[in-house]
Batch of 2 targets.
Target 1
Amino acid sequence: MRSFIKRAAAVLASAVLLCCLHANATEEISGAGATFPYPVYAKWAEAYKQQTGIGLNYQSIGSGGGIKQIKANTVTFGASDKPLTTDELKDGDLIQWPMIIGGVVPVINVKGIAPGQMVLDGQTLADIYLGEAKYWDDPSIVKINPKLKLPHQPIVQVYRSDGSGTNFLFTYYLTSVNSKFGQKVGANASVQWPAGIGAKGNEGVAGMTMHTDGAIGYVEYAYAVQNKLSFVQMVNKAGKTVRPETATFEAAVANADWAKAPGYYLILTNQPGDKSWPITGASFILMHTKPVDAKASKEALDFFAWAYQNGNDAAKALDYVPLPASVVAQVKDSWKQIDLK
Amino acid sequence: MTQRTQSLTNWTVRGLTALSGLCVVVFTIAFAILLGYAAWPAFSSFGLHFLTNEAWNPVTDTFGALSSIYGTIISAAIALVLSFPVSIGIGFCLSEIMPRRLVLPIRSLIELLAGIPSLVYGLWGMYVLAPCFQTTLQPFLIKHLGHFAFIGQIFSGPPYGVGLLTAGIVLAIMILPFLTAIVVDLFQSVPRLMKESAYALGMTPWEVTRSISLPYIKQEIFSGAFLALGRALGETMAVTFVVGNAHRISTSLLAPATTISASIANEFNEATSDMHTSSLIALGFILLVSTFLALVISKCMAARAVKGRPA
């Protein structure tokens, strides 16, 4: 019996020792938040670790979780698809900046309609999600698509049931183009949808849309490209029809006025410009202006600077849109607010 | 071993087991208290209205549990209604008809169903069952039952594929192994003497089951059903995939709905407002209480059954 206890104690002690050694052996930047930029952060982190030996421990627990964690000071940086307002930033002694650009793409599953054939405008898209345009041959849809042969089939609206930055961008856009949507639903990471079915995550929405006849859904651009979903073209603020592609996202970013947005509180939906994709959005990083661990914050900033410098190819390969150089310069300037002493 | 080490061993074993026993009690109570504490902001600000309000609107910070409770109860009820007769059928078949050497393999097969992760059931429900329902079963139900006065309401609306009915059916398959394991054990607990006497009187297997076995185990079967109900109430992953995740109450079983656990799984990560988080925890508290009630009812029934049994 006694020898058993001794042995157990030895095992326990060595396990604890191993854990400590392991924790000391590797330096890691810790962050948590949005799931949308996770693939590109992971890719950057891998390359950064090879060059510098410093790893990144990023938990993609969602934007809401990221905001909570940075406010609770359990991570060095938080990541959110929804920017905080200047008041919220001031309350938490936080600063934020855009890190990477992406977009939301409506996708459909209507028999006989090829990818990109259908065109929708914001007003009609909002009517569909309000449950007011009930069939695919609704006059409002026929009007924008005079050449398409649309079936008299019920529209099945598929939405993200989990709270997400994608939801926020999508509802923010619909709210800004359709006042009724704003009154009845509003813009948020999760909303009370008046019609349709909910699925979890991009993969859930994509799966549900592909397997449900007459469905319409919305997913992140990268996800739509990689899964070759049947996307929809959109009519933008300038009245022009645009395809979801890197060039149209870049146009939306370029046409945005970053300098005038305090605390980078800028939502890129419905931007002016002939080529702007209307449902574009940035993913944000949040950090404390008076960090508890200045060394860790310095390491995190080094990583972000490296990513702005060297990460563009990796981002493009994953169908994200890098931030324009002019905005990067402004962002780096704003880092001076962080007290690194 | 000397006497001293023996008593030491005794003491250690006693201490450790007592501690384990105590752990369960402490954990459960602490869990309930913490859940109640975190849910308090929602309960205190919405009051009883929380239970009767259908709206669940994170934009305006108005939350009501009714749509989630409704979906939870209805999907679990569908599951129970569908799997209960099947499990009785399996119990009857295995105990009275099937040759003895086939009983064990078939029981193992059914128990294997219980080992499949719920995620797999969910994916299967979403990718296979729901599209199939959308094109076959649901249009059929809408076409042939949709125009009746009362039943029509239950089978109306566009065929979405996913929805309460689909969730209920997936849940039914998931609780079937649990219910069947209980029922088969109960059937085998019927004293051989009673059954053989009945056979000796010239009864058929069905007559023996109906007038000997079933009355003998009746209450325990219902107790088992409540246990299975407890499981159906709390099932999360599979339901989230197929229930449609909509905070709406509609009369149609084909319409999308949501359950308590599906709401929590969907929204907890991104719940930024305190009231949203607290309301989700309040949902969890309601689920805890209802599962506890299902367990208590089940135990009471089982206790009554044992008491009323002829010695």
Target 2
Amino acid sequence: MTLDAPGFADPVMEAQSCFRAVLDAMAHPGSLPVIACVLAAPPLDQATAAVLLTLADAATPVWLAGETASAWDWLAFHSGAPRAASIGGAGFICATEMPNLDLLEAGSDAAPETAATLILQVPALEGGPPLILYGPGLEAPTRFAPQGLPEDFVKQWSANHRLFPRGIDLILCCGEQLCGLPRSLRIGAA
Amino acid sequence: MAYVAVKGGERAIDAAHDWLARARRGDRSLPEIGTAQIASQLGRAVDRVMAEGSCYDPDLAALAIKQAQGDLIEAAFLLRAYRTTLPRFAHSEPVETDAMLLRRRISAIYKDLPGGQVLGPTYDYTHRLLDFALAAESLEVTPLPLAAASSEDTPRVTALLDQEGLIEPSGVSTEAEPGDLTRDALAFPAERDVRLQSLARGDEGFLLALGYSTQRGYGNNHPFVGEIRVGEVAVELVPPELGFPITIGTITLTECEMVNQFSGSKTEPPQFTRGYGLCFGHSERRAMGMALVDRAMRAEELGENATAPAQDIEFVLSHCDNIEATGFVEHLKLPHYVDFQSELETIRRMRATATAATAATVATETEA
Amino acid sequence: MSGYNFAYLDEQTKRMIRRAILKAVAIPGHQVPFGGREMPLPYGWGTGGIQVTAAILGPSDVLKVIDQGADDTTNAVSIRRFFARTAGIETTTHTADASVIQTRHRIPETPLRADQIIVYQVPLPEPLAKLEQSRAETRQMHALAEYGLMHVKLYEDIARYGHISISYDYPVMVNGRYLMSPSPIPAFDTPKMHRMAALQLFGAGREKRIYAIPPHTDVKPLDFDDHPFRLTRAPQACGLCGARDSYLDEVVMDDRGGRLFVCSDTDYCAGRQSMRQDEDAAA
């Protein structure tokens, strides 16, 4: 990992198009919008790197968990985002293995918007154990089968959803695609 | 009149702007006013626009005043909208008003004191008689030879009180970054740093009126002007590559320290309390209003009953910004006919219901 | 426009607003505070909507701006020009052709699609503001979902007038959790919010709040079983296109009580008028 790894080639337009992909993903859970820009920040996938550059800056402490920590120099150089003191103090957490959701900042009832967003890079957004998504953004319950989620994901998510309006928002990334799972969703095993 | 769908909004706007430009220029047989003249001869207006526009730049403030035909709130708005697009390169060090190059310094609580009473350029003792000589053009004012800036030590009046322990310590200095309501939404309860920031750019008339209300008993402070200072201070910043402060310029500030009614308890001996005002440029009215309202908003902190408008932090901060206030008051000029139409339908229906009910009652009474 | 960034706002401000929008989408109906900036248009004239639009807008977007349902009202013209000037994007008056619609006081009559976003300009985002002035207090009420005050107000209305007297900005419950101001749209438009296919974003510039309703989300006007929500509309048909299903403006024709009722949604009305002309031509 060196600082030669580029950020957005066109910071204004690429940040805008990536943001619209993230907004699409959060507004239409289960849809899998594609990131249109080219970033090289291994071990981060295109989508993971793009979400970080789109949303993180000097105002948002970030936590890079596990192997993603090797992208620190790249992220700090291109975004100016500070390192969070702990995983619980981060606005954005990036990981390839899902940390226990109850370790993350879930906000308060009066200010639930202060909760963390978890950017989780997974091996695939299909072919995994099937889940059913219910809730805002969905016209009808929708099937979704990502790989790489922990075995107790449905249980952890139910606990997260019960906190509503507090709770963690999740963005799954794989390759150039992403999927938004806002805290307002109920998720069951299919 | 036949109904014509309101087309041509674009043409109307262009025509309005054209008319406005002509009105701004005024009588073309007279010379156009220059921004340098405004900056140099309408200094108090420039100061107010810099304070409420939250941007210290006399030339831009003068331009805004010219562009706004002297409407100072409109000018402050122009300056604010420009300010918000500027990148932030660095933060300055806190300015040292102790080291102010004084133009004016007065205290109302001691007859004389180290550093003395310096009247400076004040309207205070002018007789408010229109000076018709000023109406004559090219009136030359003979410049007075300027006295050398006083090198005499001018301690703060509050420091003199503090030596005896008669006044509460000034605000606690912390390492924490001060809040900034130009970056973050105002949240309540608001701390004193954000309150002072809000007042420093608040509407002068609003600060004046609220300060006045405290004097008339709506949250009495028992204020004394401990000290007012007007003058120049250096603005310093520490470039990371140097690691020590360098001066990047000087700005004119007005500072007011009010000495207010004392508080105390069984364990704490009584002490005077403080109200603080600081603003861009020369505006004692603004600094004093600010100091009165600052002290009033400390009511709860000092264990007083907060009952008056000036003591209600949320009320004061939510309404002191004249850019917000003028926008929202004036937005009533925008079309509201969709809402008004739904009110029309509702009131017609309610009147019909009421009329029917009355008729029914009359009918019943007639039968009986 | 030289000297300013694409869509006026600097990138740091856009990121801050974008983060607020994403949280707003994740918590439907919750007012997210944001560091609203001074805009070159006055507060109360759409600065919140403009900031939201500026943060989402890209070069491939097609923007429609309406005020009171019309594309040609002066403030709609002014805001549309602002974006044409600062972002160089394409604008339209056709609801169906727009990818982003910024609106004040109306929802278009033409149903919106999943690939569209509607941005509302909001003057007073706090639905409880008229009942409780302190935002510190109302924030707690939202935290606890304690909305008894609003029910009492509606009940008092019924006791006094026989029915609920609110005719616009009718308070709604979003996703069964948050009481929300739909902005001052007429009650006629409120049902269009329920399970709308498009994403709905709300921006309040002066009050520095952003909130959202994701697509297909439940939006229920607050009411009572025996006094259900009623929408108001002038009973006439549009004098220009004959529509009986659209919201109408009342135009004063003379000082003897003459009135003309016409669609407030000028695009909808123009579309119906040209369809009629086509039919007449075909016949």
